[in-house]
Amino acid sequence: MASTLRRIPSGETFVLAGLLLYVVVVVVIPLARLLLEGLAPGEEGQIFGLARDTWGSRSVGRALANTVLIASLSTCVSVVVGVAFALFVRLTDIWGRKAIVFLAMLPMLIPPQISALAWIELLGPSSVILQLLGLAPPPGTTNPLYSMGGIIWVMGLEHAPLVFLAVTAAASGLSNDLVEAARIGGVGSWRIVRSVVVPLLLPAIIAGGALAYVSAIGNFGVPALLGIPGRVTVLTTLIYQRLNGFGPSVLGEVAAIAYLLVGLSILGIVIRIVFETRSRTVQTRIGPALRSFALGRHRLTVSALVWTATLFFSILPLIALVSRALVPALGVKLSFETMSLENFSFVLFESAGTRRAFANSFTLAAAAAILSALAAIPLAYFSTVRQLPVARFLDAAADAPYAVPGTVLAVGIILVFLPPLPLLGFSLYGTIWILLIAYLARFLLLALRPINAAFATLETGLDEAAAIAGARPMRRLLAIGAPLVAPAAVAGAMLIFMTAFNELTLSALLWSTGHETLGIMVFFLQYEGNSPAAAALATVIVAVTVLLALLFELFGRRYAPGAVPWHVAT
Amino acid sequence: MAGIELGGVTKRFDQKAVVRDVDLHIQDGEFLALLGPSGCGKTTLLRMIAGLERPTSGEIRIGSDTVASQSIFVPPEDRKLGMVFQSYALWPHMTVFENVAFALRVAKLRGKALEDRVTEVLEAVGLAEFAARKPAQLSGGQRQRTALARCLAMEPRLILLDEPLANLDANLRGTMQREFRRIHRESGTTFVFVTHDQHEAMALSDRVAVMHEGRILQLGTPQDVYGQPANPTVARFVGKGALLPVEVTETLGQGRLRALLSEKLIELSGPEGTGERTLCLRPGDIEIPPADTAGFAATVMSVEYRGGMFALELAPDSLNGTRLEAASPVAYAEGDRVDFGIKSGWVLPG
Ligand SMILES: Nc1ncnc2c1ncn2[C@@H]1O[C@H](COP(=O)(O)OP(=O)(O)OP(=O)(O)O)[C@@H](O)[C@H]1O
Ligand SMILES: [Mg+2]
Questions:
Q1: What is the pTM for the complete model shown?
Q2: DSSP string, B128-182
Q3: What confidence tens digit (pLDDT) does each residue in A197-256 have?
Q4: What burial class does residue A570 get, using C-beta atoms within 10 Å of its C-beta: 0-12 exposed, 13-18 middle, 19+ buried?
Q5: What is the pLDDT of residue A286?
Q6: What is the Å distance from ligand 2's center to B163 Cα?
């Protein structure tokens, strides 16, 4: 039993090497390359000259100021809306709380560019709903959303569910004893909420707000649809416009702009981590969960108000979107006589472009989902169960491409994959492969997280018993680990599919003719002025997404509890 | 079938020594119990033998193979041993049959040979009719048997058991103890059995190793460990011995000693040597009333009925502060005065 000699490369070593290659190529090199690129000397060779020149330019300065302002104010919108909904749902006995939760989470499922589109249709001069109410702006006026205020509003609502989730999760960790103690002390309900519950939830509110802020910094879909026509440029759209206008020659400059995005996000990420930890320390629930306060005679009024807000935020924009999709052509008024499905038949059957986009997005999303889940299973096993240092490093590295804005990742990927590949001699830029690489980098984490959690809850003895039975690590993974975490892997893959199917930020920088994705297609149809077709395509995407979400919900509830990110305890 | 040899085995977790310099020789085919209070390092020692932890220093040999030393570490999958976990660690997605068959499949056994072997083992533990069940559909005792069958399937040279009975009720524990003895007898395999229950250790094992704070304090047959504890800690832990200072006055040969206890001469046993020593008294060493007139007077502090006899707590007048436990067939009341004699007792070495 000369075991020291028996250390020839085993299956474990090969798989680990494969994972190392995967994560290093799609994650580590692009992000590292981006960091180096921005550090390049300026034209006269000054240290970090390029970055300093870029940051000094007026357009970058304006985009930076806009980004900070929009992110901060939209975070305020998210916090106000998210906290208000969370408190009403968790603390009062308004009617239909389950339904409100579902509707309040809806904006999170709908990709930002589609939310923006829906709000454009709701508040623009041709809005069917405003026309019905006689409130529509006169034809020809610019849409009020094509402005900084519009971006702040739509982005704020888009990210409100993040705050809502953080606060409801923290509230379920609070014990009802806290409230009862105050009540016995003779404190009134309103006072309890203000001086007991809200202060305890404050860390969670800040953590949720920080998450909304980070998402706002990196958001591309909303400023692309609202800010470009409204001439409000933020950093993400500035990078897009520069690369679109000047091509790869401005990569260095664009990398320097990406630095700013990274810097702004890191600030938010740090705040989030600090307050999430703090929030966890108050959630030491023993005893019964927080009970809701009876609204008594105000129940009807408050319920009506909350329901109106919910419908306004979550449903009306979608109705506006669908009704625009039913209008046969621009300028035609919607009525039962004019209503038609022409736009749907156009995007689903006639237009070669959208059909190709369906095929591309489907293939890319499916490939990204399956490959990420397949890589995440051994990676999570090696890092969580075997605790191999290399695997733990790779596991941590997989966080980065999801934490930084998508635009940043896309720039890094262009930097690495634009030049011809070493040895092979051809470039992946302009092919569909570069999109797949970007998706694999960005979404690996979404599979890794639930699988890691599943491994962490498995008893360590299960793997040890298999080792004692003589099985080597790969055999143990295949026979014991993988079957037991399979539901979590499926949940992760479904989540990736849903997210990648709608993806816009990465595709906007990496697409090429013939390799359009659905996100890009909606964006272009709208730009070409074919907003009925854009609305029809968006409607189809929303329907598919909601269907996938329901499937995921059913699956998750049954097989992988905890993997569904929008689950809220009511 | 294999003996185990541990030499100077130490394990530290973050500088904290959990197992300290353990030397232990376990004989081939022996049933050894590793007995000690919670947290003394029993599991850690067992896991080092299994290969689930690597010793910080020291050597472990199983049979003729060195499995752990400064330069060698054989992973558990190559040690060819069996282990029963306290939690059983049954694979929840596999049936009882598959749980038992797994190691055989890994060893490339296939087809009829595999089926026959699994069936044989399941029959040996009385689980043949449960082969198709998943662990979740089994009772605690059946899970325990499955875990045992799983490790018997490979006919390992050594079986390690980490408190395998801790999660069973008292009745089932008795049944399973007899099962373990039977299977040990029939298979002839070496068993190392971790427990913190001294009755279990005594009932099952050929020898008991008493562990405390990472060290092995005594290794011997159950009778040795109970009747002739090597030091005060073992005496206190095993069988609740009361410890008293005595003056040994005379060595009588053949392990007999004469000693002076509060001005009365009594006969005791223990290693040779006169002078101030420590006496370990067990309930069985005390007789009420005393056989001769030279008894000790005491007050009954408490009485507890233990089915067939009474356990008395005595406060002797002359041994200030000491409490002795004694057994009596007749009832006394708290506060009664009694006379008792010391018919035997073990004087600790040193
Ligand atoms: N992986 C580990 N890391 C750090 N400390 C550990 C680890 N495993 C065990 N210990 C510590 O080592 C000591 C001995 O643990 P061990 O599990 O061996 O005790 P034990 O005798 O089996 O106790 P019990 O009867 O409670 O099972 C304990 O203090 C424990 O906290
Ligand atoms: Mg233990």
A1: 0.87
A2: GGGTT--GGGS-HHHHHHHHHHHHHTT--SEEEEESTTTTS-HHHHHHHHHHHHH
A3: 888 899 999 999 999 999 999 999 999 999 998 899 999 999 999 998 888 888 888 888
A4: exposed
A5: 66
A6: 7
Q: Smallest Cβ distance to B89: which of A461, A472, A475? A: A461
**Phi, psi of A49, rounded to the nearest 5 degrees:** -60, -40
Task: Quickly count helices (H) and strands (E) in chain A.
Answer: 29, 0
Ligand 1: residue whose CA is nearest its atom 5: B13
ipTM > 0.90, yes or no: no
- The DSSP call for residue A291 is P
Residue B38 CB–ligand 1 contact under 6 Å: yes
Could you identify the residue written with the tokens 């524990």?
A: B173
Three-state DSSP class for residue B270: coil
**From B77, which residue of chain A is nearest by alpha-carbon distance?**
A470
- Within 10 angstroms of residue A211's Cβ, the number of other Cβ atoms is 23
CATH topology of domain A57-324: MetI-like fold (1.10.3720)
Mean pLDDT of B47-54: 95
CA–CA distance, B48 with B67 (Å, rounded to integer): 10
Residue of A468, A385, A383, A422 lying closest to A29 (CA atoms): A422
Mutation pick from A12, A13, A460, A468 vs chain B, by most beta carbons of B within 10 Å, is: A468
Facing B73 at nearest CB: one of A3, A461, A466 = A3
B275 neighbors B248 (Cβ within 8 angstroms)? yes
Question: Residues A72, A75, A78, CA angle at the centre, nearest 5°?
Answer: 160
Residue range B256-262: average pLDDT? 86
- Phi, then psi, of B17 in degrees rounded to 5: -75, 120
Closest CA of chain B from A460, distance in Å? 8
* Dihedral, A366, A367, A372, A378 alpha carbons, nearest 10: 110
